[in-house]
Amino acid sequence: MYKRLPPARPPPTGVPFHASVRAHAWENQCSQRYLVDREPDAVRPPPVEQDAPAWVAAMGAVSADEQVVEVTLQGKGSETVVLQALHVRVVRTGEPLPWTDYGTGVGCGGGVALRTFDVDLDQGSPAARAAEGQRPFPYKISESDPEMFRVTAHTGGRDVSWYLEVEWSSGERQGVFRVDDRGRPFRTSASAGRPAYDYPPGASEWSEHQPG
Q1: Of the four listed, 98, 119, 135, 207, which is most buried by Cβ atoms within 10 Å?
Q2: pTM here?
């Protein structure tokens, strides 16, 4: 008698990793600035970092001058996933927003993530460039070995909508994973020449920004 072989497993499908995206990470607790189309008396006090997404949504705010995005990728199983490349895709670009500039605070310090990349959105074809002393792609991830990437995108003279793409492969499978702000592009606008306000620690209202 021939022994019946078990049915072959279907090949795996879908993206072989989990992705967690923080669209409004900050270089430090008080560094980020936002453009808002409202007068100071109509703008809520600045949020702490973990509450930034809700504050941005409520105020209709846009990141001013730079935006820090943190992406954590972790494999779903024992298989190794190779992250081949990180690409920047620009959806649209235009003149800077004529809105008011609001700071999250003053006088704070903070840390830097391990895998750090810089994006100059003013370039014709923006690219994610590894920080000095850090190797570029590719990277490998698995369920027990995730990676976190911090991407700082900045512009000095444009209003830019953009997102990231992670090119990946696992065995015979390969694909491209889009990284965005819950289905929408990230948006970053220059703030040069705009009225600017701060909300210093202990204050009860916005006050004009004092350079220096």
Answers
A1: 119
A2: 0.86
